[in-house]
Structures are given as structure tokens and as C-alpha cells.
Fold this protein.
Amino acid sequence: MVITDLGMIEFDAVYALQERLVAGVTAGTGPETLLLLEHPAVYTIGSGGNEANVLDPSLEVRRINRGGDVTWHGPGQLVGYPLISLDRRGRNLHHYLRFLEELLIRVAAEFGVAARRVPGRTGVWTGGGKLAAIGVGVRRWVTMHGFAVNVAPDLAAFDLINPCGIAGCPMTSLVQECGAAVSMAEVRKTVVRLFAPLLAEWMPEKPAERDSIADVVCLGR
Amino acid sequence: MATEITMPKLSDTMTEGRLVAWKKSLGDRVERGDIIAEVETDKATMELEAFADGVLTEIRVKPGEMVPVGTVIGMVGEGGEQPDSVAAPSSEATPVPENWQPPPELPPVEPMAAGDVPERLLEVPADTAASQEPPQPSDAMAEKASPLVRRLAREKGIYLREVKGSGPEGRILLEDLEGFLGKQVEVKVKVEEEAPKPEPSISAAGVAQPLSRMRAAIARTVAEAWRTIPHFTVTVAIDMGEAEEVRREFKEAGSPISINDLIVKASSLALAKFPLANASCTADGIIFHDGINIGIAVSLDDGLLVPVIQGCQRLSLKEIATQSKELAERARGGRTSERELSGGTFTISNLGMYGVEEFMAVIHPPQGAILAVGAILDEVMVRDGQVTAGRRMRITLSADHRLLDGAYGAKFLQELKRILENPMAMLV
């Protein structure tokens, strides 16, 4: 498992990097990777997302190969893209979504914020609203895209859209929930510390690893 | 040889998925490993690969459609091959077995309209009472069926919960309905032949039947309410599409809630903003109640009980669902305690499961208002200038005119409507 901090980086650049790394994980030639970063402000929408949720028609919205509807990424938000082989870890996509939620709930707890799941609404929530969004794409059982947790962003950016396709969805951030300063670096460090052990606990690698990789290679030519 | 492309099962719990996009067009060449479509479940999309070389000969599911896991969504055939089953109906994940028969047991007795119930029938012997479990409010919309099937069932007067679905996940298909209808007609004919002649009406002859204890209590309460409370009613129609979606999502997430639970939760939020609907009118003046304690009218064979969910303002949707279920079960089992029946500040009466469109309920004194909830029905709606089919429910507030006026009642309902049409507010 490799965890890389990319700092502030354009959406397109990371997208290309994800594609390259995913190909490596699929082929068994590259390691599973977690990319941590911030994006300059950008709106993205999942493949099946509804344009009607973009309330300001002048916004430029990138349509990408992940689940979920429209969302915003920008400074003050920690974005994580885990490129993980679900094939080696049990082929259970919903369990993977619950794992991402668990990770973010525990990260929030480290800052004294009680976050939780809302059944049927993938993501992480507090009494004040949505704290983190999740949107995943899977290619040959390798994940891309991932999560975005609001550390201290300008939440007004969400006013121009129905976040995740939910009209009037209240959004919140760690800073808003704590009522105190929380730095991006602290949150990033917490994610780095918790990610690999939790992944191993929730989605342990299967021993028959080599065989299934051979399978994938064969299917993918 | 043609190869089926099916909706993949991407986890243990996945029951259906949405086709997001086709990455190949009809007639395109595909090679094993090519990405041919994208499907979505929850907040994740999965690229679907071809497992065989050939030509995409058939597309059975359109982008945006939700289908059960295992449904054939398209076919990859050999080049030049004719699409082999274009006209055939889409084969569902679990096809109906050819020898499938409608369930042998008789359909339960249909609930009668309130006006049809002769008073003496209310004193049914205990054993019949036990065999006729009243339908639970939470099951009113539990059956999976297409809007067409629902409409047909409604037109034919069939309760979908009585029909055994043979489709995936127990989905009720058109043929199930037809099968059920055939059986039901047979049964009805039989019953008519065997039914004894109705006895002459006792009350017409002037012989009084003593009221049961429960009937007497109800009689006292409603008579007092009707005599002392100047009732007025306001009705509003609510688009329940989103609320049903939330309910479906809860169910899939393993914590089932009922539409009634959503209404209880929404009412508690609306009552917090409209305290006069959560108040009592007394000789000394208006008493505003701090707690929002919502009574749920539970119908029994010989009357009704109104157990109360205490402190709804502090309870999450899930907690309300749990308590509501427990209270209803205890009421039906005759185990309700005095404490569970007292302290109510507002009541909800739901006759939606009987297909009732709207009705008016009598206030439960010393409360100041009661909400009467009708069925969710498919209706034509105009949304953004477009005619569409929608899921509409009518609710009627009966209020004590001494406490509040029509406009206040209307604003309360407006708030309730806003919450139920934007159910996210109830989740966070």
C-alpha cells in the first residue's frame, strides 16, 4: 500500500494519474495506492447524475466515471482516491462504501465530531448536515475516485448545486462542527494513520491473491 | 452463439442496479474485455466488460433504468446474426415457473368500508378476532409492483399485499394479478353459493346490544369531542415520491420504516414550528405542550387504541419506527398499558392501507388537532410544465377552532408537505 500526498492539484492531472495507476493495480504490476490531495475549485458529476441538480447553468461541470450526482471540490476539502483491488479483497462493492464511511467517521471522531451514516444515503453525516461525500468508480474490480471530506472549505460553493442530487442538502465541515481551527495537515495525517489498518481489518486480502490476478490479466488481455 | 449480458451482483446485499450508459451501440463489434456499459449501485459505478467476442445485437435496458440483479440487459451475438429475441419479453432474473399456481389459500376477508359495519359485528368472538389480523400500516406500500400493476389492482379492487409476487424479490407481475383475480372470482362465487341468508337486523327489531368496554370508552371520548370541540378541517395533497424513495433506501439498508413513521417524524418537526397544533384548549386558557407526544390510532377488531410515542421531538426516524412497531404490536396483542395511552398531544390516524383517498378524523380530547392520512395513489401531475405520473397522498387536519384558524392550519400543512416532499430534513 502506497499513500501519496499530492497537495493542491488539478482534477485532470489526477484523473490521468488514477487511470495509469489503476491499470497497474489491475495488471498486478503496481501497488494499491491512496492519493490524498486538494483540488482547485471544480464541479464534477457522476455518470448517471442529473444535470438538473446544477442550479446555476453557467457552471462548468465535469462528467466523470463515478457513482453519485453533482458535487464540488475545492480548497479546504481533503480528497482521497483509494485505488484498491476489490477482487483481492472480497468483491463486495457495498462493503467497500461502508468501509470508506467507517474511515471518515473515525477521522471525524479524532476531532471530537460525532459523525454517522444515514441508511440509503452513502456519505458521512452529522447533525449539522453532510460532512463527507463518497463517489466511486470500479473498473475490473479496481476502485477509483473515492471520498471528499470538508475540512474548512467555503461551503457557499455548494449553494449553486443540489449536492449529491439532494435539494437543499445541508452541508457541514469539520471546522464548523468543532467550532475550532482544524488544519488540513492534521486531518491528512489522521487519514494516513487510520487508512491501511482499517482496510486490513475490514477488507483483508484473500490468500488466493495470485490466482485472481492471473484471472484479471487474462480477462483484460 | 449469443451471450447474455446481465446486471452484475456487486455485493452480498445488492438487489438491483441502474444502467447508467451503454459504451457500445447496437451493431458495434465488441471484444472480450471491452467495456460495454456502465452500471450504478448506491454511490458507485462499475464498468461492465464483455466476456465474449461478437457484436452487440440487443439492448434490453435503457440508460437510467433500474433492474434487478441478474436481469439480462443486452446480448452479444456473432456478427451478421439476427437479434434472436427482439420481440421476446425481457427475461427477468427469476422467470415465472411454468407450473406456477396462485396460492391455494383463500384470500383474507376484505376490509369493509366503515359505513358497512353493522354494530353487532364489532363484538366478534375471540377466535375469529385473532384470525383477522388488521393490516399493518407499514405494509401498505411494501409490495413491489409496477405502476401499471398497482393501477390495475386498484381498479379491480385487489389489495396487492394479498397477491403473491412471482417476480424477482417477490415483485408482483401482471400475470400474478391475473392469476389472483381468477382465483378470487372463483372463491367469491363459491362463497355466495354457500353463504347463509343474512339474519334480520337486530337493531331494527329494537333489541339493544350492550357496548363492549372499549366501545363504551370510544363512544364517551368521541361524543365529548364532538360536543365540545368546534372542529374544522383542511386538506392538502402531497407528492410522496421522494418519501417512498427514502423508505425504499431504509429497507435496503436493513432498517425498515413505514410511510406512517415518516409522517410521524415530519409531523413532529412541523409541530415544533406550529405550537398551537400541539396545544390544548382549557377553561383556563391555552396550554402549550413542551413535549411532542404523537398518538398512533391502531385499529382493532372491536375498536381502536391510540398508543402514544412520547417525546417525538427527540427521536430519530429509526427510533420512531421501532417504538411505533412495538406499540402497535402491544396494542394488537392486548398488552397496552395505561401509561402508553396517556399524555398524547397530537394524533395521527392512517386509513391509507384501505385505499381511502381522504377522510376526516375526530379530535382526541384534550388534544387540539388530529391528522387523517389517506392512501398514496398514482396520479397524473404537472411538474415543471410536464405531465407526469406521481405518487400523491392526501392528508386532512382536523383542528380545534378555539385554538387556531384555517390559515394557521393551512400553514402547518404547508410545512408538513414541504418536509415530506424534501425528506432529507428528517434524516439529518
